[in-house]
Amino acid sequence: PPDTPFDGHPLKLWCDFTVRDAKSGEIENQIAFGSKSWLIAFIRLMRGDFNLTNDAGVIDITNTSRTMTTNANKFTVTAALGVLTTGIIAGTGVTAVASADYAIQTVIAHGTGAGQLSYAAQVIGVAGISGTNSQFAFSRALSNGSAGSITVTELAVYVVNNTFNFAIIRDIVPGGGVAIASGKIGTVTYTLVGAA
């Protein structure tokens, strides 16, 4: 991420999308951009925690109205191998992001078949200080074991709150997306940066 807050805002989310060869590890493509797409579920989660209240009427990733709770598992991004209900999710949708979005438009399924990617477990980094910034990163590797190339055009971050799942971020990948060719691995890293 940049050493200074972009656009003058003290709290930002930075996305890095890197494609490497699975065997050599050589970088084949890399883009980075500032995420501007916090969704309403993120705001509702924050408000609920600030106010210590359960927030009703929040739409989950299945388009069902749920009550967000302030108890355990309130903002969890961890995801095991192949899990598509939490963590960083990849898709092929191109519809512009709206604050009311509740899910990725068109999810890329987990697997090795045509049009699928293998989702690794979600990795959560440690929090630390870099210069005047406080930050931490979380990432997920997406491997293409199919015979064809897959272009990722959208990304989302899903969290679990109690037993329900909510989308807190959705981004359209700049430049028409990032292609992950057969035998390649795309790694998406989001870094949350707060400036002093």
Describe the structure using short key phrases.
single chain; 196 residues; mainly beta; seven-stranded antiparallel sheet; three-stranded antiparallel sheet; 1 helix; 14 strands; globular
Describe the protein in words.
The mean pLDDT is 91. A hairpin with a 2-residue loop joins strand 11 (154-161) and strand 12 (164-172). With 196 residues, the protein is mainly beta. The protein contains one helix and 14 strands, in the order ββαββββββββββββ. Strands 1, 2, 6, 7, 8, 9 and 14 form a seven-stranded antiparallel sheet that branches. Strands 5-11-12 form a three-stranded antiparallel sheet.
Overall, the morphology is: globular
Radius of gyration: 17 Å
Roughly what is the average pLDDT, rounded to an integer? Answer: 91
Helix-strand makeup class: mainly beta
C-alpha end-to-end distance: 15 Å
The total strand number stands at 14
Strand content: 35-45%
Q: Uncertain runs with pLDDT below 50, 5 residues or more?
A: none
State the major sheet. Answer: 7 strands, antiparallel
> SSE string, helix = H, strand = E?
EEHEEEEEEEEEEEE
Helix content: under 10%
Short description:
With 196 residues, the chain is mostly beta strands. Helix content is 6%, strand content 44%.
Topology:
Elements: E1 11-21, E2 27-35, H1 40-51, E3 55-59, E4 65-68, E5 87-91, E6 118-119, E7 123-124, E8 128-130, E9 133-143, E10 150-152, E11 154-161, E12 164-172, E13 178-180, E14 184-195
